[in-house]
Amino acid sequence: MSITRAFNETPVTGIGTSFDINKVIEVDMGMFPCDAPYRGYMSLILVQCSAISSATTVTIRICRDSAGDEMIITDTASQLFTGVSTATKGTAAFALNAFASLASTDKVFVFLKSNAGTFTSDFVEITWGAT
Q: 80 in the Ramachandran plot: left (φ > 0), alpha (ψ -120 to 50) or beta?
């Protein structure tokens, strides 16, 4: 099985307590050729956070569309684990065990929200495998 790390490293600030289509994070899953639809086994998703203000939980939703209406991973929550040296930085980790596929693209759209307060998503990383 080949393992791929797909990610978006564009920070998204002010993520709050509801999903916001203006704060959607597009992740190119890295298919080859680049116009091939995504088909693979999602294993681990990491959300690296900063500027954490009162948030203790991150909920993720992954969709086929940028409007957030066609889900491939439904709302899943993770505790937000803060850093050892910096309490305003942390990571939410989501362990998946799922085969997923898209009809015509290799891009997924990630929506995030907190249980309270706000945070910045510094990057989203999806580790997946293909046979």
A: beta
